[in-house]
Design a protein that fits this description.
- By secondary structure, the chain is of the alpha+beta class.
- The protein is globular and about 45 Å long.
- The N and C termini lie far apart (about 45 Å).
Length: about 190
Amino acid sequence: MPHVRPTEPPDAAASRGGTALAECEAPAPHITEDEGVALRRSPDGTGDAVMATRGFAAGETVMVGFLVGALTGNDSHATLVGPDRWARHGGLGPIVNHSCDPNCGVRLNEEQAFDFVARRPIDAGQELTFDYAMRNFTIDHFPTVCLCGSTHCRGSVTGWKDLSAARKADYGDLVAPYLRAMDADAAR
């Protein structure tokens, strides 16, 4: 299958059982360029970025997600995995940068982690991005100013609850499934 299957950290299987993350820090990701992605300096030189090392078609899985541990609360790299439930992803997933006009969306996999899926064609050498609102109802631990540089930039990194109805519709099914249920609950 032509998508990334990151090598799991040695303790990943054990840590999926709900241990607090403080007990199971993940080692550096084991992803090589021949798997389609690589960690590199961002094109603007401001930090790290996950870059495509080959092209991906729209709808193609770019990276397969896996969890390395449950968390007792939210933090800057936590992922909402259900109402009031947080976990930490392993591999390069936590390093993928935010964009208000992302080239990737997320899809929940059988391991209850999020795969990154191309929303549109991605060329080799292009940075992979996703909207952090695609898997978080609120964003509590990010600066107020967004630096994505997209022509569709919202000006701040916001959660799902703050997206317009048009943006939510544009993302289609490439968002965490519990977000739509949380939207319905919030509207009541």
